[in-house]
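go over this chain:
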Amino acid sequence: GHAVLGECWWSHGMITGYDFIADSPSLTAAQCAQIERDFLLLEAEDIQTHRIAANQQCEINAASGTAAINAQNWYLAARAFTGTYGLFDQIEFTFSEEGFSRENELAYHFASVGPIVEQGQVYEALGGHFWTPRVKRIFDAPLASSPIGDPGYRTGYAEAYAHYQDPAYLFPGGDTPLSNSVLPLAGRTTLR
């Protein structure tokens, strides 16, 4: 579990870095092809073979989907979005009917929501429709359970507000870093 999760986290950085320089004169077409074939495609296939649940599966889908897109393997990318255990399955498997994480902890809830939102943005950029009522419920549930009315993860709520125009998603101030017992151990102190 944690080894795959760690691999997903570091692969995000590698994939993003490649995406920044892929169209620059820094790499030849042959080098890009080799990176896409020998790293990104292998990474997408390797990560996608793991089927876990909840926040870890959300990270797996985001990492494998991003790698597959950069490797231009649309079959693997589609699996990360619409396949078994893909983005839309995770919206159902990870959250209760009311919209709260089945892991039953606010930090784990947002550990799932973060990669789901990132993957949803990519899905929309590719022409899909992500911001459905089923997604809205995963933003509504933490508001109902937060004793101060502000569950954190304000960046995600700002994105949700842009799509749903729900004034409950507006909070004063900037983004609030979240913490849980797992992220600091992995060298992470915030969720995005």
Notes: DSSP finds eight helices and no strands in the chain. Helices lie at 2-21, 29-48, 54-70, 74-82, 87-93, 106-125, 133-145, 154-164.
